[in-house]
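thought: fold this chain, then report.
action: predict
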Amino acid sequence: MSTIDISTKPEFMSVVKLFNSHLGSTREELLLAAKFLHAYTECSDAIQAGIRDMIGIVVNEATDADDRAMTLATLADALFPHLHEGKLGLDLEQAEQMGSQASEEMRTAVEELDREEAAFADRLSEAMKERSMNQVQLAEVSGVGQPAISNMLKRRCRPQRRTIIRFADALKVSPEDLWPGFSSQ
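observation:
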């Protein structure tokens, strides 16, 4: 195992500051912090940059609980990937299929999400057409990448709440106009 002198890597400072703020923590918390830092040092520069961005989201007071939880899950996957059937990661459709087989409640929830996702893709596409806006233009106005917009329209991924809000603001509609039941979630 190789060691890295953190003091020579200024990009670690945001991570180090986060851990330094918890020096009064328990031994178990500090051990977890050490594992986190070790995993971080083993990542490529690009992954480290993404991790620092995610830490920024997690510690930002403006981040809502849903986005914080999703970011923490993504952070955990980036640092401590788990194998599923011998491969890294798990396909969303495959995970939903596994969950649907686990219980009737999960199957119902997945079906409802699927209907909402289809309605979102249709409503987003329609709102863009009504405004003669293409994906590149929506990306520029909303701050969401065009490839992500394409994936959402093709239903290859689901938007986060803040993404729906960004689209609604860019298209000058309410979030409910894009995602059914948005306000009640």
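thought: worth noting. The two ends are 46 Å apart (CA to CA).
final: tokens above.
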